[in-house]
Amino acid sequence: MDQVIEERESCSIKELVEKHGWDYFRRQEKNLLQEIIDREDIVVATGGGAVMHHDLWPRILHSFFSVWLVADHDTICQRLADDSRTEGQRPSITGSNVLAEVKKIMAEREPLYKKYSHLAVNSALLSPAEVARVIERALDP
Asked: What number of H helices and E strands is found in the chain?
């Protein structure tokens, strides 16, 4: 979803947030979620903050199979550090250092991830292919 928003806005998420603020970004995110809720046969990577749109999640859960990719704080921080796009694309939400920010955000969002997912997969020790196999098995009747 972030990629679609960046294409529509012709700038990175970081630039978008710097120019218009987090509330504007969240509105664009919510609008995009509303557009895709009734689509079929698609895979959507919502990004971590989409879970904050509480009013949409009952419909999302009805339309989609929601997977929470679980990882511990250290793994999340390492993935952010290893991703060359982090600096240019992901603005700080809290203004704290990365570990403090991850801990704060995860404390707020984990209950929502649990509530709004059909399946939780611990991705910290699994390769992307292994994660995909776990999800495929869960979808196979």
From this structure: 8, 2
- What is the total count of domains within the chain? 1
User: Residue 38: which residues within 8 A CB-CB, separation 6 or more?
Assistant: 63
Q: Which residues of 7-40 are buried (b: 16+ CB within 10 A; e: fewer)?
A: eebeebbbebbeeeeeeebeebbeebbeeeeeee
The mean predicted confidence, pLDDT, of the chain is 91
Domain with 61 in it: what CATH number?
A: 3.40.50.300
Domain that holds residue 69: 2-139
Which two tokens mark 126? 């699994």
The CA distance from 138 to 141, in Å, is 8
- pTM for the model stands at 0.84
**Pair of tokens at residue 38:** 């009734």
